[in-house]
UniProtKB/TrEMBL annotation:
PANTHER family: CYTOCHROME P450 FAMILY 3, FATTY-ACID PEROXYGENASE. Belongs to the cytochrome P450 family. The keyword Iron applies. GO terms for molecular function: heme binding; iron ion binding; oxidoreductase activity, acting on paired donors, with incorporation or reduction of molecular oxygen; steroid hydroxylase activity. Gene3D superfamilies: Cytochrome P450 (1.10.630.10). This is Uncharacterized protein. The keyword Hydrolase does not apply. Keywords: Heme, Iron, Metal-binding, Monooxygenase, Oxidoreductase. It comes from Nephila pilipes (Giant wood spider). It comes from the Eukaryota.
């Protein structure tokens, strides 16, 4: 698993470098959210979704639906 986290970290660094070289702004919360999703999905399902370079994939969409609902259901799912 350490290798997976290292790989995802390297991908994130490369992505941040690419954005910085272009002089663009980056949503840091979203960037680290994609990193987190990449690590979790790889650890739990042994699947590489590359959310860092493809932040609009289905895993990110469904994760946002669960955790960003704006009601108590997401909180109950996470904290209970």
């Amino acid at each position: 698993m350490f290798e997976d986290v290292t790989d995802k970290s390297s991908r994130l660094v490369e992505r941040l470098k690419m954005v910085a070289e272009k002089g663009k702004l980056i949503n840091v919360k979203r960037a680290f959210g994609t990193f987190t999703m990449d690590v979790i999905v790889k650890a739990c399902f042994d699947t590489d979704i590359d959310a860092i370079n493809n932040p609009d994939n289905k895993y990110m969409e469904y994760g946002s639906r669960i955790f960003c609902r704006g009601d108590e259901l997401g909180e109950k799912f996470v904290f209970q």
